[in-house]
Amino acid sequence: MASRGGPRAAGTDGSDFQHRERVASHYQMSVTLKSEIKKLIYTHVCIWLLLLAQMGVGHLKLLPHDQVAMPYQWEYPYLLSILPSLLGLLSFPRNNISYLVLSMISTGLFSVAPLIYGAMEMFPMAQQLYRHGKAYRFIFGFSAVSVMYLVVVVAAQVHGWQLYYSKKLLDSWFTSTQEKKKK
Q1: Which of 75, 82, 71 is nearest to 43 (CA)?
Q2: Which pTM value belongs to this model?
Q3: What tens digit of pLDDT does each residue of 134-160 get?
């Protein structure tokens, strides 16, 4: 029995822990990957809320047009990107492989595809800004193209890491199910 201040068990010097059972590595990896994916999902939710706020302010005209520009077209389908994140969170409690696979596929469709379209949609305006120094849309005094490209870059990294960790988690879960089938 372990105790901090009490006597040590007779006949041991504390180095006899090698024989004890350990948690299998794929279970440890599963816990670590779930934690990382949750952090990325919460980061994605923050980005999503900022875009939703910008779109709401733009449409409801709560601030003047020169303060907050109207949203770009790619922002509307990107709002659906919250669905894959929710599917990912739903897959965690019971290690549901189907939900995780659906989350990964729909992340490509609802998250990555709108980001690629957004980068292409904003490219001519970014070219005009950097060649001629002219911007026609602003978000709190900053060029809307610059701000939204920053959002696209950060969101692409978040979704890229989310897909990478999800694939590793999926592999970890497959390892776990294969071991259970062998027994």
Answers
A1: 82
A2: 0.82
A3: 888 888 888 889 999 999 999 999 999
**Cα-to-chain-centroid distance, residue 136:** 31
What residues contact residue 165 under an 8 Å CB cut-off, 6+ apart? Answer: 33, 36, 37, 40
Token code pair at residue 142:
């900053």
Q: Give, for 56, the enclosing helix (H) or strand (E).
A: helix 25-60
Q: What residues have CB less than 8 Å from 43, skipping those under 6 apart?
A: 158
Host H or E run for residue 86: helix 82-91
Contacts of 115 (CB under 8 A, 6+ apart): 74, 78, 152, 155, 156, 159
Using an 8 Å Cβ cutoff, are 139 and 151 in contact?
no
